[in-house]
Sequence to fold (549 residues):
Amino acid sequence: MRKKKFILILTATCAVSSVFGFSACEHRHSYSTWEIVREANCTEDGLRMSTCSCGEKRLEIITASHIEVIDSAVEANCDVEGLTEGKHCERCGKILVEQHNLGVKHEVEIREGVASTCSEQGFTDEEHCTKCKKTLKAQKKLKLLPHMFEEGVCTECGVPQPSEGITYRPVYDNNEIVSYCVKDGAGCADSNVVIADSYEGLPVTAVADAAFSGNKIIQTVFIPKSVLSIGSSAFFACGNLTEATVGEGVKSIGDNAFAKCTSLKDIELPASITALGTGVFWDCVSLEFVRIPDGVETLKADAFFGCLGLKSVALGKGLKQIGERAFCWCTALYEVALPEGLTEIGDRAFGACRALKRVTLSSTVEKIGSRAFQECISLIEICNASKLELIPGSDSYGGIALSVTNLYTPEEGSSKFTVTEDGFLFYSDNGEDARLVGYVGGESAVILPESFKNKRYTVATNAFFGVSPQVTSVTVTCGVEKIEVGAFGAGGQIKEFRYLGTTDAWTALPKEEFWRYLTGFDEVICSDGKVTRDGRIIMFDTLVKWKRK
Fold:
């Protein structure tokens, strides 16, 4: 009985110990592996559980966290922007450590700017990369400094003081004023016009179309080197303009820019010019000489049409084409040398150049247009270096060889022309049968030579046709052996005609229909009297007699 009670007490004790965590039997929990109850993510905690064999359960929180991925740093160079090292979550994409843009990295070199003066526009510093050659900071032009004028001339650069009354308009580039253009010269009262090289601190780079058109006051014009272009009809019909100074900087002159400037005698075209417009010097009847710059490739149509006083022209080395009627009616032009590189001569290019005596064809000439040399009645000599097969008397190739008497090549033959120091043009073969065929001097009162190579000579037909307009008086010496028909038919410009011999000697001098063509005089003044157009001889003692037939 007592033993039974002990067993019951022991059992109860074990039960109580079990309830209050006392293991009288020393039981050790053996938990299973963890089981995920709820997965953790980047923002919410998870939960896991493990169970003992006795049924005891154990719970544990799984802390929320990101899965970090390293974003590598990038080294900067000319083409790639650099970045610092960063991090992001592989699961949600969240930026954990932001990468910073370091930009590109150039090897920078600075080109120092230049300060402006009153004549040269300065500019700011420029930055560029020596490795990739990219411009990092572009230069910007600075405004010009003002001129300091004393007695009409800048003391710093020497340019003349601009005329008043000329209006200028701005020239824009991307809505920014970059220069100025001469808009109108109608308000300028100066006869000697000076165009400004700068306005409001910026260069004047152009003369607008028709800016001075029809101006009857202007006599000279100074165009500064800042000007790059002269517009169409800019000085059209400025009838009293005698001289134009074109600055070394002008690249183009527009159509009819100086057309009908009938008094224009002197203009020097700078080497900077590359383009001359159609009819640019049309009807400039007083212009005597012009040099075409080497940069001009094409002389456009009518460029020098009707330039009656043009005696000679120097064609540039870059010329490739002469346009239609470019020198048509240049009746004083006596010689033309076509440059190497020229390939084409347009229709009527030298039409009615009636004083033209000699032409040199370069080896590159391939085409001569229709009637290119029509009415070139005095063209008697051609040096032909081209491959064109010219035949004297033929009207092929624009009629260039129609009147020719001396056609030769650089390899075979030579010129028969001589120009004397005082401007007389003779044609002869080794001094034999000398003929005076033209005058290219600058005198208004011309006295013919006493002889040519110590021999008497003939004054040829059209010898004085197309001479410079200033020739108004001619004196014939006793060295003249014969006068051909129309020798002095100069369109009526010769008003006085003298003969150094007597009236009898004049009467005996061989003359072919002396009065047949228009002359500006009606009598020949001899040493002892006058011989009139109608045949009367008026002696200086007032005795009148009739000319012997």
User: Anything to note?
Assistant: The radius of gyration is 50 Å. The first strand starts at residue 35 and ends at 38. The chain has a mean pLDDT of 90. The CA atoms of residues 31 and 52 lie 4 Å apart.
